[in-house]
Fold:
Amino acid sequence: MTQTGLVVASHGRHCVVEASDGSRRLCHPRGKKNAVVVGDRVTWQISGDEGSVEAVSPRRNLLYRQDEIRSKSFAANLDQVLILLAAEPEFSEMQLTRALIACEAAQITPLLALNKRDLGEAFARAWSRLAPYAAMGYPLLGLSLRVQPPELDGLLARLAKRTTLVLGPSGVGKSTLINALVPQAQAATQEISRVLNTGKHTTTDTRWYWLDDARESALIDSPGFQAFGLHHLAAVDLAGLMPDLRAHLGQCRFHNCTHRHEPGCGVKDALAGGQISASRHRLYETLFAELEAAQQRH
Structure:
């Protein structure tokens, strides 16, 4: 008999499905078309001690990255992506831009959070670097996870009744955040490992945690912020995925303007007028050249 469930972990061709009663079971997708990612809603059935995924429900969205070699899916059916940065180590604007572009392409709302407010001067510097992103309309929160866990109240309100993927480079306090929000995180991770190890498979990289007993708010922890390939996107679509550049599209002399060297370009005029920062336009040019080269190779 089939039933519906939620994919809370996946590793290779295996996944852990949570049933409506909260129990979890190792499952194997039936056929290639039923490959799953964390966050998928599926139809599945019990098969001995394990289960088989019979169908994957249509996804609202899918956040993934693609480099020269392969695609890597983060999660599906997300309400938002929390990009966690810190005053130290210094964050890379290129990494941040890649993650934001991927969110824009998947039509998933990003939420920026800067940790280590207790570092004073370093925090102020990092905060000022993020000011242009707040001006573009991205929500931005300041946190001090090590010193003041009560600050999480403001964050919790933004996580309530949503499914949120947490991304961030190493050393920013992601584990501290997860443990503060999900006291039973270690137990949940061990349970996923136990279920997967039933089939002699190592644990998953991406983990789903419930934030409440009603199972309405969820946090998904995933690594992979550093290598955010955007090769699934076309170079010509790039400007439309960067809010500060997007505001000046449709003002160019040529309909196929690349916003790099053409005369009569609305984006270049905005750059000259200080409405777009030089550093953001340089990021755009670098990414455009990368995607253009990748498309030419294929």
About this structure: The two ends are 45 Å apart (CA to CA).
